[in-house]
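Assess this today:

___
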Amino acid sequence: MRVIERMESIGVAWPDLNKGLTYTDTVPPSKSGSSLIDFYSKTHKTSAPLQGWVHRIHNGQITIDGQIVTDPDEILRGGLELVYHRLPWREPDAPFLLGVLYEDDDLIALNKPSGLQVLPGGLFQQRTVLSQLQWRAWKRDSFLILEAQVPHPVPVHRLGRGTSGILLCAKTKLAKARLASYFADGTSVVANQRCTENTKGPSSVRKILKVYRALVSGIINEDEVVIEQPIGMMKYPGVAKGLYAASVSGKPALSKVGVLERDFQGNQTLVQVEIQSGRPHQIRIHLSFIGHPLIGDPLFVAGGHPGSFDSESGDGGHSQDGGYPRPTRPVPGDCGYYLHAHRVVLHHPTTNEWSKTVNPFLVLN
């Protein structure tokens, strides 16, 4: 048994600007004869409006086979390599310190703060958990010149940017594969058979169990609630790939909710939620579906849907870097809600023994 009695903190302060990004395309034969602006405005229309791409081309951010091109009407031919250079930018404020709950040769369990994104996406390309893990590895192995030579832990599941608590990261390929299979197996069990009220705790099939705590609006009268509402994708302004929400045509999802404390004066309830599937934003969607959205959730309201489906307001222009301005409606990454990954129980990926993580400490049996 190993017990961490004092949680270690890791993390370094964020640089003022990130390093920017590059996006590479190869012109397919079907696009031969198209103009540069036609290619980008149609192939990557969710990245920027037409005038935004014109702005980027004029700014010298596009190269063709390594040469900067500033003419939007440049004619392309099949096989050319196009590279869009996104300029460095200051990412929104985010915390950088992470607590280490447990670490061995195979995995590391972190205590993630609310407001920190796990993996790169959108405006957050550098200010992520993944970056801190990379920097920590490079600092420990500074004798390795090439960054790509330094192995580093990688998260094996996600927590929403506004969610705090336990995040599991794999340090080896074997651990990554097995932990990923644990999460996939748990979701497939829910998809293939309806779990009944007799499903309690870890089973012979499920090798991982995640328990969250959440503060929701209103008073939940039942001590226990099982939610089996499917979750699917829907169109939503400002989210190019769509938004996850309650949907009769969605994929199966199951959450078990237990009441911990009722605050009648504040009209709110503290609950514990065991998720037996891993759909995106599952807890936020399920609790709002039963009429008890998370306190402070800017997106989901009673019914398991966004508060508004209205079209974006604005003049249809572009931001300083040419891309679309920030959506005027709330988006999934917005914070403010109260949700904490409180406990994880799992089979250790290499020893196959049951491991129990309890925030803020971790015990391995």
Summary: The longest strand covers residues 208-217. The chain is about 15% helix and 30% strand. The chain has a mean pLDDT of 87.
